[in-house]
Amino acid sequence: MKSILSFIIALPLVALISGTDLQAQTCDVTSSKLKCKKELVPFRYTGMTVQRIFFRRYNQRKEVSFPLYFETKYRFVFNTENLPQEIKIEIYDSHSSNRKRNKIASFSSDEKQFTFEPDPSMVLPFIYVNFLIPASIAEDTKSIPKGCVVIMTGYEDEYAAFDNESTQGTE
Amino acid sequence: MKKSLISSIILSLFFISCGDGNQQSNDSSQEADVQEEFLKEESGEADMETETFILPSTLQIGTIFQRSGIGYIDGVVTDPSQIDAYVSKNAKLMNFGLYSADLAYCILNGQSQKSLEFLNAVKSLAEGIGYSSIFSDQNLYKRFEANIDNKDSVLNLLVEIQENTDVFVEGNSMHEQTYVIFAGAWVEGMYLGINAFNKENKGDIAKRLVEQMNIMTNLNKALESSERDLSDVDFVVDFLKDFENFYNNLESIRDENGIVNVREATIADEDIDKMSSMVKDLRNKIIAVS
Q: For burial by CB atoms within 10 Å, which of A99, B8, B21, B146 has the most?
């Protein structure tokens, strides 16, 4: 009887303590996905990726490449609200091994949500999203600060008439 | 009392961790990886840079090819009633991608009856690979049937299936499976493009084929980085590597500086013939694999 009683007492207590902690650490994809989906309109959904960000004790650069079809207008929606601290997000026209590559956009995760539309006249086969993650160490020096970035992509469905002059990429 | 309190706390923690589901296990496994990296970091073995490859959706491949003048060719798609022949997980995954490409092709070309047949095939394959939750909304299937003659509505439902798949994959850390799925979809996209190639549309379709081959380079990197056992479909992995070499040596698609400009690219007829033979051969092997 005593053990049942202690179980009943302990369950909500532990759930409250641990649940809060777990929730803070977990990326809330459902909420971020909904926000991205709204921002994607009127572009047609192509895909979604959740990039887990782990803050290590040294600076990191993480690269994610996205293929682009030419004569197609894209929108990328970034949701960065699930990060415990700021990171930089840079977008390039080429792979990190190419020293002559050009930076085509740059954002801070502090914006929480932002969009990027590559200029279709550039005819890029891929864009390279780079996450610049600063070195960090947790207070206890053992746990790992972590979060995630949700990226949703869409393309303009009826972009049949390609016109260099009338279409411009925006940040 | 003390003992029972401790056991209750352990039990409670167990329930909490279970309740948090796949997302938590996903995070935990990645966290364990990072802990391991911390050890490497301390010993000076840590990698400073990582790279991830994102692949397009089957619907997008279909849409892009359709804009280039791919029309419906009777008998070009695979037989949707063959799904029971696939036994291994990789065969099912790869054909899930291949059948999904056929589904998109049929929808985009207004083939109502075929679309329904492929939807049933894709749904069965999804169940076979443990993806049944992407169809768990029964209304989705009913809406598909009810709107089968309305192309735009059906396309929206296909997007919904894609969204469900992405969420499922993210929540369950199944990215390596998506590379196998995409390999099947990629091959079928190439197969449909090559079959539609004729004198009138050759310029437009050639550009799209070049574009697809460009994406193949990412697919190969993704498959190479995969730790999944692909021994039963190694003929596909090997083919893709050979095909990348073939692509890298295609002179007809390059300008005088050796650079591929997709917008201006053309493919010589003899190269198309060779590609056609290679892709058709591979596609037949994939649908015959068990």
A: B8
